[in-house]
Each structure stands twice: as structure tokens, then as C-alpha cells.
Amino acid sequence: MDTVTKELFNTFGKYNFFTEPELNTEAREALCLFLKKLKKTKSRKSYQSGYNYMFYLRYLMIMRRGLIDENYRIVCNELGSLIYRFPPTETRIKLVIIELLEEFLKE
User: Fold this and answer.
1) What is the pTM of this model?
2) Under a CB-based contact definition with an 8 Å cutoff, are residues 25 and 12 in contact?
3) Which among 6, 2, 94 is positioned nearest to 42, based on CA atoms?
4) pLDDT, tens digit (0-9, with 9 covering 90-100), for 20-74
């Protein structure tokens, strides 16, 4: 992970499947903060190619389900897995994450 990715991950990284359910609201707030920070990052024009080029969509589908169910701990867990494997500053990934989180985290 590069420095920007680590900083973004540290925003929400402590929330996951095993976090107490009472911390779900905190996880939502962490996702809102992550969204603000992600919007401020500079996008990368290059992208990863290879056999798993579209595999990031799997994480996005699980994140969407978590957002629909308002289970923000699952969203944090899957977002962490996503940015561990794919750089969140890659334009195609960044834009989809922003769009997805904005749709469900309206204040």
C-alpha cells in the first residue's frame, strides 16, 4: 500500500465484521470522512491490468448490499479488502466508490 492508500485506510480500518454492532454509527461516520478524503486525492490515470481487472466489482456489490442494509461495518470491511488489492486513487475505482458512497451516505 502506498502512503495515500494507508492514510485513507486508517480512516475506517478499525471497523470490520467482528466490530461490536454498537459501533455501526461510528463506522458510518468513518465512511463519510473517508469519502471526503478520497474526493481530495489526485486520481491516477494508469490502471492495473491482468486477469483480475474487473474483480473489484465483487467488493463493490458486497459494499452496496451493506449500504442497503445499513451495516456499515461490512462496508468498511469490504472497502478495506478492495483498497488493499486495488489502488483507490485509480480513476475507474475512485469514481465508482465515490458514487456508491454518495448515494447512500447523504446527510
Assistant:
1) 0.90
2) no
3) 94
4) 989 999 999 999 999 999 999 999 877 767 767 788 999 999 999 999 999 999 9
